Amino acid sequence: MTPAHAASIRLRHALHHSRPGQMALLAAFWIAGEAVVRLTGLPLPGGIVGLVLLLGLLATHRISLCSLRKGANWFLAEMLLFFVPAVLAVLNYPQMLGLLGLKILAVILGGTVAVMTVTAMTVELASRRRMRHAA
Amino acid sequence: MQPDPWLATVFWSSLTIAFYLLAKRLYRHWPRWWLMPLALTPALLIAVVLAIHASYRDYIHGAGWLLALLGPATVAFAVPIYEQRALIRREWPVLALGMVAGSLTAVGTSWMLATALGLDGTLRLSLLPRSISTPFAMQVSQDIGGVPDLTAVFVVLTGVLGAILGEVLLSWLPVRSALARGALFAIGAHGAGTARATQLGREEGSIAGLLMVLVGLLNVLAATLIAALLHS
Question: Which of B177, B187, B217 lies nearest to residue A119, judging by beta carbons?
């Protein structure tokens, strides 16, 4: 075993146990995605490009789930925190507190009920049909 | 007097994180909709901003870096997607059908309801992508000529209301499969819905996580295509 190979194994082993290390690795994929977007002018968020890059590496077994799972679970569990500053933008639109806000609320409520009903019924009926055909 | 930018960053960031942790703890003990971290944390922060006569600019200069963490959080979805690859391979026609039906309904009903209530222009456009998660929605909003900031607010409102509405709808609708229950939350209420679906069960949660990303991607691709067609 060459020294470089041994070092790489030790590094991987350390990564399997380090949540901050895994978080840094995920951030590196995001930065790489941003770089790709900037260089190619792709009309996608950098995070999505990073996600596709990472899926490619997972699918070809260049990277294992063990070196990411802890970091990924942390990001997914705390994701709501990262949305919070976006909500504060409502401060820029004081006119939303009046009638306009009520109208917007009505659009959101009505639209969401429709989307949820249509989606759930479509998936439910389609999967029942498939199961009957398979049986 | 201009406050020290470092101090402002520390102040607004730690306040945001502290309120978030508080809301999370309260919600775990009392799962009421108005204690949901995504509802309570911004409400408390807005109260502080107004109380000390600060502005959105002050706040976002201090705590805006948290938004950037949505980038690595998006990358993190590779893990649940990869873990569920067998399910995706087996159920992709059903899931694809649900995503297309849900997205068309989202855009169609938003447009019709907004028009019926006399909302138009950039406001109506900003309402269209509100069912998908924030990074995707802001991208779509920009592509179709909406205001990404405004869309972010609508996305969050949809998430909070959707997580509550989803519960009610599940008790009315005859849906039994985990596939349909997960899809209802993911396509109707993105991240907040997915968090709710995770509490229903493991399978519901992973389906919701997967669909949330895929439906976001689908919408970004569709909007890019439409924008390219309109400008050509």
Answer: B187
